[in-house]
Amino acid sequence: MNPFTYTRPADAAAAIHEAAHAGARYLGGGTNLVDLMREGVERPAALVDVTGLDRTITELPDGGLRIGAAISNTALAADRRVRTRYPMLTRAIVAGASAQIRNMATLGGNLLQRTRCLYFYDDAARCNKRQPGSGCDALEGFNRMHAILGASDACVATHPSDLCVALAALDATVHLEGADGKRALPFEALHRLPGDTPERETELRPGELITAIELPALPMARRSTYRKVRDRASYAFALVSVAAALEIEDGTIKDVRVALGGVAHKPWRARTVEALLRGQQPSEEVFRRASAGELSSARPLRDNGFKVELARRTIVAVLSQLAGGRP
Questions:
Q1: 244, 88 in Cβ contact below 8 A?
Q2: Which intervals hold domain FAD-binding PCMH-type (predicted)?
Q3: Is the pLDDT confidence value at 291 over 80?
Q4: CB atoms closer than 10 angstroms to residue 39
Q5: How many CA atoms lie within 13 A of 1 on its CB side?
Q6: Rounded mean pLDDT of 47-61?
Q7: What is the pLDDT of residues 126-176, one digit of tens each?
Q8: Phi-psi region of 311 (alpha: psi -120 to 50; beta: other; left: phi over 0)
Q9: What are the residue ranges spanned by the domains of the chain?
Q10: C-alpha count within 13 angstroms, C-beta hemisphere, residue 172
């Protein structure tokens, strides 16, 4: 048993103060961190419970929303403003876990959940993310669930979050607070690709706390959806997922947002798809060419080559659904 202290600060400033102690970790719903503690992967010396911090959803002057990081996934998905203005976000949250887990999990914790790679959880396996410099057994092991985009020789793990895929597509902003004050990051800049340092998963500074997520006013997001392809409908992480929004004007694609899950070390914003589609007339053939362009840089492993075609077909299916006016 790894001994640890537990505190439940009343505000962000107190939480940041408590987290300054060596080995401290912020605790949200615990749906990932507590699992990792049970497996011995995480051994914090102190837990700083932040579930009592801001969990409100606030209207912004431009029509966007500011969401407190302590809000539960259930409350976020059920909010009428989120359901109507950003349906892809609600769909991603509901696809992400059972109702019981959604009741416990928090928005901030979801952003920071760690990979579900089997080798990361197995302390008998080599894992550069868990023990830098030890190697990566997934490269030559069972790698059906692993990355096809943005991976490296140091790590081929995928990011497990569904919610984060939608936030990447929505151009969200992450609000942070730490010992050096407050700052904001574009959501796409929060998570890192593995490179040679897969143990560094985000751009957060030591002791920094996620306080809120801001969603911009994005009228096109009302015409958006999220599709998750997995081995079974419950308790399974994505093989491939797609969050997308589409704006069509006078028969032409005026704007589009696409992000992918299950294919990379971070939520993957499909910038190539978006660039190739703007100004085009929507059709399955156009969607196929755009998705092929995005996936031209894919580097599949021994067991996950099927993900390339699966991702292409899922992108085409989702965009065709939106182009046809179906939610």
A1: yes
A2: 1-220
A3: yes
A4: 12
A5: 3
A6: 96
A7: 999 999 999 999 999 999 999 999 999 999 999 999 999 999 999 999 999
A8: alpha
A9: 221-323
A10: 29
Whole-prediction pTM: 0.96
Pick from 178, 134, 173, 138: nearest CA to 265 = 138
Q: Are 242 and 232 in contact (CB under 8 A)?
A: no
CA distance to 31, 96, 201, per residue, from 37 (Å): 11, 21, 18
Site of tokens 């992108």? 315
Mean pLDDT of the chain: 96
Which residue do the tokens 């190539």 mark? Answer: 272
CA–CA distances in Å: residue 214 to residues 69, 79, 138, 175, 220? 10, 15, 36, 8, 17
Q: Which residues of 131-141 are buried (b: 16+ CB within 10 A; e: fewer)?
A: eeeeebbbbeb
pLDDT higher than threshold 80 for residue 327:
no
